[in-house]
Every structure is written in structure tokens, then in C-alpha cells.
Design goal:
The structure is a single chain. The chain is an all-alpha fold. The protein folds into two domains: 1-132, Orthogonal Bundle (Farnesyl Diphosphate Synthase), CATH 1.10.600.10; 188-351, Orthogonal Bundle (Farnesyl Diphosphate Synthase), CATH 1.10.600. The protein is 69% helix and 1% strand. It has helices spanning 2-13, 15-23, 26-46, 53-67, 74-81, 88-95, 97-105, 109-132, 147-159, 161-172, 181-202, 204-209, 217-222, 233-238, 240-262, 269-291, 306-318, 323-335, and strands spanning 142-143, 212-213. Strands 1-2 form a two-stranded parallel sheet. The protein is globular, with a radius of gyration of 20 Å.
Length: 351
């Protein structure tokens, strides 16, 4: 069953995360993989626009109760949302969500608690998103208000994974027992925020089309722009310095993510690679965004090519045991990103 859920099904619903999961040590793989599957199932429900928003919120509340180990009918959620899925993999995921919950409840107590806690927070982030943005198109566009609200949002939907990831590894990997867990967890939160900020910056146009603006309204107002103005070219160009400042904030999070990764003992090379891969792909994506003449108006999400991904994976694998080698790769990727506000911070070579 575990191979079925964490093999074919996980590979079908997340090709990118599947790469990191397969490299993880065996004891870590199951709780992390099961947590991902349930988070993805909840996210699929949240994104099923053919279901009324109020019903989606009810389904998310049901899932959150399940994640809290309370009695609730998770199969009812699958029956309601499954038939509306256009992707077969997402339909299969919802059909199997009960099996995933059963496996989570069979985990050791510490792992089960950690999975439940992170899923509780992630689901809260999805509920926040659905209630904060009440519409589905530009005519009902709403925006986050402040940079602080954006930071809170990125914590709810991604940053919270950092302490979970850290706790599970520390519990299963004796070489990490001497880690300063509080400090590393804070870095891991920034790691998750970096990846989510990349998604936010990459998906501005698509989010606007669905009535969502994650570029804070207060920052836009300060330069004489309303969120709806970002649908037009000229205001987007005026907002480009603000966009670059958000890129710089993301870069600062990436720096902490690299400090976290380079603090992992070299002998834990699987964990190092599982962290290094999304960081490198994310930095390469930021470089593409920074180089684009109109990243907030791109008709499709800006991504790096599969060939670029393969090169990054290969290069990092060759130097996984070396802080100097990994830090050098990170620094070279970072130097491709030219931003007036980005500063000159380089990646620490943690010993």
C-alpha cells in the first residue's frame, strides 16, 4: 500500500516533489510523503471552482477535523469533489484519500502528531485564501493589504512545512540530534516562504485573472496604483520597482534556506540534495522572472526548462558532500539575478 501511495500516485500528482521524496532516507519518506498527499488533496478541493465556495470551505473544515484526528467523513469530501476533476491523477488522489488517512493514523505517535499539525496549518492557509479572495475573476478582484499579511500567508501555505520537515528528520536521523532545532526551524520557515514567494511572483497574471492579488494593496497605493491597474501594461511598468523589492525579499528567504541546507551534515547527503534541488530550481526561476520585461503580465507562468532542471540536479549531485561546492552553485545562480534592492549578500559556507 505504501509503495502504491508513495510511488505511482505521488509521482502522478507531483513530479517535482517526487524527485525530492525519492532521495529522502527511508524513515523520513513515509510521513513526509503522506503529508504531501493529504495537503495536495485539500488543495485540490480548494481549487475545484465547479463547487460553490461555501461548500469548498465546508469540505476543508471536514478535512481539517480529520487532520486533527477527529471523527469525520473524509469519503464524503472525495465523493463531492472527485467527479469534478479533469485530471485523472487528482481524481484518483481524492478516491484514495481515506487510505492515506489510514496510513497516517498507523504512523508512530510523534510522526502522526507532526503530520496532523502541519496539515492543520496548511488547511488553515487554504481557508484563509478562499475567504480573503471572495471572487473568481478580475471583476471581483481583491488584494492582500500589507507586506505583513503576505508574509503571514506564505507562512500558512508553505513556511509551516519547515519545522515539520526539521522535526521529522531530527526524529529519524541520529546525526541531527545535536542540531539547534529552534534556529534551524526558523531557517526552514524562511526556506518554505522563499518557495511560496517564487510562486506568488511567477503567477501574478494568472492570480489576477482569478480575482486574487498577492501584491499588497498598501504598497501599490503608495505608488499611486490600485490592484486592478496591474491588468494594464503601463501601471505594471510603474510597479516594477515594487515587484523587484518583492523579489529581493524572496532572495533573503533563499539565503536562509541555503544556510539551513549547508548546516545539514555532509553524511546526510540525501537530505542535503532534497533541500538543494528546490532551492536551485527556485533561484533559477527568480533569475528568469528578474530578466523578463513584464513578469506580472506574462500570459503563462515563467518556468525554467526541463533541460535546465536536469543540469541543476546533476551538478548538485556531484557536489552534495561539499559545502564549498553547493555554496558555489548557489552563488552562481544568485549572481544571475540583478536587482537594485537585492544587495550583495552571498551564501554562507556553514561549517
Amino acid at each position: 500500500m505504501a509503495d502504491d501511495l508513495l510511488g505511482a500516485l505521488l509521482r502522478q500528482v507531483s513530479r517535482s516533489f517526487y524527485l525530492s521524496l525519492t532521495i529522502l532516507p527511508r524513515g523520513v519518506r513515509e510521513p513526509v510523503g503522506l503529508a504531501y498527499l493529504l495537503a495536495r488533496a485539500a488543495d485540490t478541493v480548494a481549487d475545484t471552482r465547479l463547487i460553490a465556495r461555501g461548500e469548498r470551505l465546508d469540505h476543508l473544515e471536514t478535512l481539517r477535523e480529520v487532520f486533527r484526528d477527529a471523527p469525520a467523513d473524509v469519503t464524503a469530501v472525495a465523493r463531492a469533489a472527485g467527479p469534478h476533476q479533469t485530471l485523472a491523477a487528482e481524481r484518483r488522489l481524492l478516491e484514495r484519500v481515506g487510505d492515506v488517512v489510514t496510513r497516517v493514523r498507523a504512523l508512530p505517535s510523534a510522526d502522526r502528531h507532526a503530520v496532523g499539525a502541519v496539515l492543520d496549518t496548511l488547511t488553515s492557509g487554504m481557508i484563509f485564501d478562499l475567504t480573503r479572495f471572495p471572487g473568481e475573476d478580475p471583476g471581483t478582484l481583491a488584494a492582500l493589504d500589507t507586506l505583513e499579511e503576505l508574509d503571514h500567508y506564505t507562512y500558512l501555505v508553505a513556511g509551516c512545512v519547515g519545522p515539520f520537515w526539521t522535526a521529522v528528520h531530527v526524529a529519524h536521523r541520529p546525526r541531527l540530534r545535536r542540531w539547534d532545532v529552534a534556529n534551524r526551524s526558523a531557517q526552514a520557515i524562511a526556506f518554505g516562504k522563499a518557495l511560496q514567494m517564487t510562486n506568488v511572483l511567477r503567477d501574478v497574471a494568472g492570480d489576477l485573472a482569478h480575482g486574487r492579488c498577492y501584491v499588497p494593496a498598501r504598497e501599490l497605493t503608495a505608488i499611486g496604483i490600485h490592484p486592478v491597474d496591474l491588468l494594464q501594461v503601463a501601471p505594471r511598468q510603474r510597479a516594477r520597482p515594487l515587484y523587484d523589492r518583492l523579489l529581493a525579499r524572496a532572495l533573503a528567504h533563499y539565503d536562509q534556506g541555503w544556510d539551513y541546507t549547508l548546516a545539514i551534515p555532509a553524511s546526510e547527503w540525501r537530505m542535503r540534495l532534497a533541500c538543494a534541488w528546490p532551492l536551485m530550481i527556485g533561484l533559477a526561476t527568480l533569475a528568469a522572472l528578474a530578466a523578463h520585461p513584464d513578469p506580472m503580465g506574462a500570459p503563462s507562468p515563467i518556468k525554467i526548462s526541463r533541460a535546465q532542471v536536469r543540469r541543476l540536479l546533476t551538478r548538485s549531485t556531484l557536489v552534495a558532500w561539499s559545502n564549498r561546492g553547493l555554496a558555489g552553485l548557489a552563488e552562481r545562480l544568485r549572481r544571475r539575478i540583478t536587482l537594485p534592492a537585492a544587495g550583495a549578500t552571498t551564501i554562507s559556507r556553514v561549517q
